[in-house]
Amino acid sequence: MHILSIVRIVGILVMCFSVTMLAPAFVALMYGDGGGKAFMQSFAISLVVGTILWWSCHLHKEELRSREGFLIVVAFWVVLGSLATLPFMLFEHPQLSLSAAFFEAFSGLTTTGATAIVGLDELPKAILFYRQLLQWLGGMGIIVLAIAIIPLLGIGGMQLYRAEMSGPMKDQKMRPRIAETAKALWFIYSFLTALCALAYWLAGMTPFDAITHSFSTVSIGGFSTHDASMGYFDSSTINLITVFFLLISACNFALHFRAFSEMGKGNVVKIYLRDPEFRFFIRIQIGLVLVCSAVLIGEDYFSDNLKNIEQVIFQAVSISTTTGYTTSDFSHWPAFVPMLLIMASFVGGCAGSVGGGLRVARVLVLYLQGRRELKRFIHPNLVYPIKWGNKILDERVIGSIWAFFSAYLLVFAICLLGVIACGVAPFDAFNAVLACLNNLGPGLGGVSSNVVAIPDSAKWILTIAMVCGRLEIFTLLVLFSPAFWKA
What we know:
Keywords: Cell inner membrane, Cell membrane, Ion transport, Membrane, Metal-binding, Potassium, Potassium transport, Transmembrane, Transmembrane helix, Transport. The chain is an all-alpha fold. Helix content is 63%, strand content 1%. The longest helix has 27 residues, at 176-202.
């Protein structure tokens, strides 16, 4: 294990991250409402920490294997998340405890969107911009992680594409091809962000709101610059724009990468339509909209049917993709609807997307496996392979997905019991853990809008849940395996 090389790389990454502190400092200078000093101090501290880590190991440049890649990912997220708390601690308003500052920073980086801050409309523009920027940076990190690192773990999801993908999907070491793929992904991600910001601005948002909300939309983060979230704008056009970009961002970025690579060949639409996960994802969205619309129209919840349908489309896509934007307090809707949407967040976005949850690819395989077992009850001798598109799925992949599913439920149960032990009511604890582990953000009950009322001890557990959910659990669990540390 090349520990010193890992420290050197983490130092470089931290130095790069420190530069991002200058962006909110510039925003503070533009609007003159405070915050510049806190971000300049955070920039200096982060730069010094990164420089020390890099300089102490700058002579160690060994070639890294997949094992080092896992350790870099975990170390970077822990160190980066810790340094990201600095502005929240240095700001005089809002005054956050250490646990709340960590919670807010990790909620941003993991694109969860749960918040320990109230009164967003009165906060300085710099801190609002910073929260949104954290989600945008975290979202890009998630995409690279999912496409370049996670497949090497063999825990289902992105390795389903290994036979079809070029580049990092077949590499077993940290090689230049991963860097090439990451550059293409950065371009796609940045292009979608710019397009989203432009659409928001044309729809009536201020330039500041358009840019900041494009950050949290394309990253499926859910942070807003207003306490009322997207309901602040009260615009059907903005709602539809949000839904459109959420659906794009919840799709597998490996598909976007392939579509971008073959754009000149005219096969872009076929790439999406031939993908089993994409088709299943769209069916889920349509099913949720139809069922929830039927309930709200039957209850005549809003003033007219079009309003019912618009609200359902927005909330169904926002919650099921684990974004967490709201246009109204959906927790007060007929009880069946919010509970269905919250449970749908367990499915989440597609593998290789910025969405959270179990991921659509894994849920699809679990469904196909369940259907196969039912047929085997009737015909015990039946040979019935599971297919992914036109390819027969390896039984080891199916087994790894079941292992991931079991680990996911185990972590959920442990975190739930831990939060309850901290004094949180069981229903609120269930929703808080669900929202954090699925990287959703809002839940039901006492955590429907924020986690201010959650005890500090429970916030630490929820922070761990957010990281577990974002790093897909096994990225962390593999570090506790003795085999991982063997030479």
